Amino acid sequence: MGNRTLAIIKPDAVGKGHTGKIMDRIISDGFTILGARLVYLTREKAEGFYAVHKERPFFNDLVDFMTSGPCMPMALEHEGAVNAFRTLIGATNPAEADEGTIRKDFAESVQNNAVHGSDSDENAEKEIAFFFTPDEIHQS
Ligand code: IDP
Ligand code: MG
Hints:
CATH architecture: 2-Layer Sandwich
CATH superfamily: Nucleoside diphosphate kinase-like domain
Shape: globular
Bound molecules: inosine-5'-diphosphate, magnesium ion
């Protein structure tokens, strides 16, 4: 079980000024932030990041959304980081997210759902490398 995951505070949450509150929830839940940066995704980068979803009907809207403003990718450390973070953020659709989760409290809709979290250790490492070079990640 890996100890790292890639989180993104998405453009809806950054735009509404929720970045600090969401980072506070992440830190309070015991995650260490190994790297973080404000990023303006190009269309090409957003399409690359979500390439696994390119056949889905919502793909174009998702890319529009992810390029609508800055977002904040973060490399996070925690024991069993992938599952721990997905528990903290809640279900993809905020209407189905548990009380106290980040998506329940900050998401607008199934698309504009405030945060991303990696879905496997393998994808976590790929997604961290998508945004950060090894020397940009704090080695704890
Ligand atoms: P996840 O972010 O919870 O892992 P995924 O199924 O990997 O969910 O979908 C990636 C992102 O695509 C979601 O976070 C959300 O922004 C968007 N998305 C997923 N399903 C839908 C949908 O049915 N309609 C619109 N957008 C969606
Ligand atoms: Mg996913």
